[in-house]
């Protein structure tokens, strides 16, 4: 059944889905690769559409797949599909460009984090609504982290307690994200990093193990197992 978005919601969610998925190995753009018989993008958009504050979903698709993505998502939820760019940041900028100014909160989510629970999407939006200009979902770092030289000699051990792994969706006041992207100079910085560079505080909320980024072949196997957990 096609989800209905909340016409009075205050949140737009941008879903960059234009990457090649090179680390996943041969088989086409990652967002269109199948997990339990459905493309990753369908899993991701279904969960975004189930978040009650969401009024608008904008997907940045691979240029060659725009019509295919529109057809694929039509039965899932009402979405706007735009052409992605060569870098993720450009895909995000192109999606951001179609969000009307009256939508106050913009979340940037990865199609590759296909199993992110709606509750995380809502909690990021709620923290922005509560007054934080930028909000990221995070998890504690579990491994011991070493700093090394270029020849792989250990320089020292980093204090793990002050480190966090960062997930998506990252949430922003609309104007904050728009200004950060307008000023962006480094294509490798994530959306929150652009806001940090502008000198604004970025606030952490709890992420979820289900929000893992599907990157390598092993991640597809793990994601398939996670799908079978009670959600
Ligand atoms: N993405 C995008 N446009 C790009 C590059 C990435 O919209 N030019 C999106 C991807 O589709 C993905 C998200 O950004 O949903 C996170 O990127 P990543 O996990 O690196 O995906 P890919 O770039 O597709 O994978 P890889 O780096 O292995 O090629
Ligand atoms: Mg990539």
Report on the structure:
With 231 residues, the protein is of the alpha/beta class. The protein has seven helices and twelve strands. The chain has helices at residues 40-49, 66-73, 88-96, 118-129, 174-182, 191-197, 217-227; strands spanning 11-16, 34-35, 38-39, 54-61, 80-83, 105-108, 134-140, 146-148, 154-157, 164-166, 170-173, 203-206. The strands form three sheets. Strands 1, 4, 5, 6, 7, 10, 11 and 12 form an eight-stranded mixed sheet that branches. Strands 2-3 form a two-stranded antiparallel ribbon. The two termini are 19 Å apart.
Tell me the layout of helices and strands.
Elements (H helix, E strand, L loop, with lengths): L10 E6 L17 E2 L2 E2 H10 L4 E8 L4 H8 L6 E4 L4 H9 L8 E4 L9 H12 L4 E7 L5 E3 L5 E4 L6 E3 L3 E4 H9 L8 H7 L5 E4 L10 H11 L4
Parallel strand pairs: 1-4, 1-6, 4-5, 7-12
Antiparallel strand pairs: 2-3, 6-11, 7-10, 7-11, 8-9
Helix pairs in contact: 5-6
The protein binds cytidine-5'-triphosphate and magnesium ion.
Cytidine-5'-triphosphate (CTP) binds next to helix 3.
Summarize the structure.
The chain is α/β, with parallel strands linked by helices. The protein contains seven helices and twelve strands.
* Overall average residue pLDDT: 96
Instruction: Tally the helices.
Output: 7
C-alpha Rg, in Å? 17 Å
Structure classification: alpha/beta
Q: Multimeric state of these chains?
A: single chain
Tell me the strand percentage band: 15-25%
Assign an overall shape. Answer: globular
Distance between the termini: 19 Å
> Using DSSP, what is the number of strands?
12
* Small ligands present: cytidine-5'-triphosphate, magnesium ion
Low-confidence stretches: none
Could you describe the largest sheet, including whether it forms a barrel?
A: 8 strands, mixed
Order of helices and strands: EEEHEHEHEHEEEEEHHEH
Helix content: 25-40%
């Amino acid at each position: 059944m096609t989800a209905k978005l909340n016409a009075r919601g205050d949140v737009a969610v941008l879903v960059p889905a234009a990457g090649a998925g090179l680390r996943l190995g041969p088989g086409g753009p990652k967002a269109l690769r199948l997990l339990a018989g459905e493309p990753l993008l369908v899993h991701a958009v279904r969960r975004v559409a189930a978040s009650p504050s969401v009024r608008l979903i904008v997907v940045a698709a691979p240029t060659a797949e725009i019509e295919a993505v529109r057809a694929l998502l039509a039965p899932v939820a009402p979405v706007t599909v735009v052409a992605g760019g060569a870098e993720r940041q450009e895909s995000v900028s192109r999606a951001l460009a179609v969000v009307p100014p009256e939508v106050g909160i913009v979340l940037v989510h990865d199609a590759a984090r296909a199993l992110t629970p709606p509750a995380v999407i809502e909690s990021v939006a709620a923290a922005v609504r509560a007054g934080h200009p930028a909000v990221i979902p995070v998890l504690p770092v579990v491994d011991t982290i070493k700093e090394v030289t270029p020849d792989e000699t250990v320089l020292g051990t980093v204090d793990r307690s002050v480190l966090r792994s960062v997930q998506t969706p990252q949430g922003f006041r609309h104007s904050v994200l728009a200004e950060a992207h307008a000023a962006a100079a480094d294509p490798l910085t994530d959306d929150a990093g652009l806001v940090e560079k502008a000198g604004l505080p970025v606030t952490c909320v709890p992420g979820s193990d289900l929000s893992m980024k599907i990157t390598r072949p092993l991640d597809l196997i793990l994601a398939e197992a996670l799908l079978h957990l009670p959600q």
